[in-house]
Write a structure and sequence with these properties.
Order of helices and strands: HHHHHEEHHH
Strand content: under 5%
Largest sheet: 2 strands, antiparallel
Distance between the termini: 57 Å
Number of domains: 1
Helix content: over 70%
Radius of gyration: 21 Å
Structural class: mainly alpha
């Protein structure tokens, strides 16, 4: 069994499956995360504060989920970099001109995915330091709200305070644009890896990938932009 797993990991097909499966898992997380964050628009701070408090009420589940997500991201990054390196090292000797162009396009696409993914990794680290660890702005630690007689962190105030700084909001929106590009290509590639893409479904898959990426981009970007333009305020 261990030999079979090792053989799968060493093969390019196996690593493509690892990248695809971990990509699907992370897309699912991003969709759920965005849905929770959009409670900022619920009309009352109690909604997002209560949601955050609910998540923190189950630390074992929350940290198990976080560690699982971290392992998933690590596998995804390893697989993507490994495949990109393999594509870059492959020499198009003996191919026709069209074949060389196709190989070059694949290599450039994989390298672009690695670059955008690396920048997104940096953004995720900053995001965790910003709101989760509260190391970017120490004042977050003193922000509290009372919901239903229970004292909890005032997440609504933290978000509005954080995104009131233009450079932070701009950084988040730029990161979401990179996420849009990364997910648009990745979501479409998943179907090909799973062997579910053909001439008949290609156009539908491309359209679905664009729609998914656009929804996530506008969903996440709407919060910092709403703060900057005064739609969300204290």
């Amino acid at each position: 069994m261990n030999k079979e797993i090792l053989r799968m990991v060493q093969s390019s097909i196996g690593r493509k499956w690892i990248v695809a499966v971990t990509g699907v898992l992370m897309i699912g997380f991003v969709v759920v995360h965005m849905t929770g964050n959009l409670q900022m628009f619920a009309g009352t701070p109690d909604k997002i504060n209560g949601y955050a408090h609910f998540l923190k009420s189950y630390p074992l589940v929350l940290w198990s989920f976080r560690l699982g997500l971290l392992a998933t991201a690590a596998l995804h990054i390893w697989g993507t970099i490994s495949l990109a390196r393999e594509n870059r090292m492959a020499k198009p000797v003996g191919y026709a001109v069209a074949g060389r162009k196709s190989r070059l396009q694949v290599t450039l696409t994989s390298v672009t995915m690695v670059i955008s993914g690396s920048i997104l990794l940096g953004f995720i680290i900053f995001h965790l330091l910003h709101f989760t660890a509260q190391m970017v702005d120490r004042s977050y630690a003193s922000m509290e709200a009372v919901v239903g007689g229970v004292t909890m962190p005032d997440v609504y105030r933290m978000v509005v305070t954080g995104f009131s700084k233009p450079w932070i909001s701009i950084f988040y929106v730029v990161a979401m644009a990179l996420l849009f590009s990364h997910l648009r290509h990745g979501a479409a590639s998943v179907w090909q890896t799973f062997g579910l893409r053909d001439r008949n479904s290609a156009q539908l898959i491309e359209m679905g990938s664009w729609i998914l990426a656009a929804v996530l981009f506008f969903g996440f970007s709407s919060i910092p932009l709403a703060v900057l333009f005064g739609v969300l305020k204290l």
